[in-house]
Design goal:
Radius of gyration: 18 Å
Strand order of the largest sheet: 2-1-3-4-7
Organism: Roseicella aerolata
Structural class: alpha/beta
Strand content: 5-15%
CATH class of the largest domain: Alpha Beta
Oligomer: single chain
Protein name: Nucleoside 2-deoxyribosyltransferase
Helix content: 25-40%
CATH architecture of the largest domain: 3-Layer(aba) Sandwich
CATH topology of the largest domain: Rossmann fold
Distance between the termini: 11 Å
Number of helices: 6
GO molecular function: 5-hydroxymethyl-dUMP N-hydrolase activity
Number of strands: 7
Order of helices and strands: EHEHEHEHEEHEH
Largest sheet: 5 strands, parallel
Number of domains: 2
Shape: globular
Amino acid sequence: MRIYLAGPEVFLADAEAVAAEKRAICAAHGLTGVFPLEPPPVPPDPAQPEWLRIYLGNEGHIRSCDALIANLTPFRGPSADAGTVYELGFMRALGRPVFGYSHVARRFGARTLAALGPTARRRADGAWEDDGGMAVEEFDLHDNLMLEGGIHASGGAFELEEVPAERRWRDLAAFTRCVAAAARVFRAAR
């Protein structure tokens, strides 16, 4: 079974080294890890802009995979990487299992409030809102409810491992638990 390995690790200077470690973990569980930076199954037209070739290549990878594991560690703000979120939703829309993990234990609502700082205020009903009057989502989840809802609805699993900032993008303990969960799902489906 092929697993798409979504996450912001593609932005690391040593992204290929992280990809190799993730592929090895997948292989140890009888799965094939597919990293976004690999050549796509159908090469995009070289005349297209680079950003579009990357997008089409990643969608091609996702379509060629049986499941997805997403690194949902907060990225450049209180929430997960937007591209990773898109990929998770795309795989979920294909009806395939999605799994996720995070290396930050603090809940989404608390992270959002911290990012808003003193501009956050309480409404009369007790809910928090930003300076634009938009409510702050507080469901005691690790990220937006649509992400954890999609993981849950697909039969996937969400793993959490608090990791110090200096190892946040390279620690693979929670990822390994997601791979093991995916392998169990595929074995049970046979």
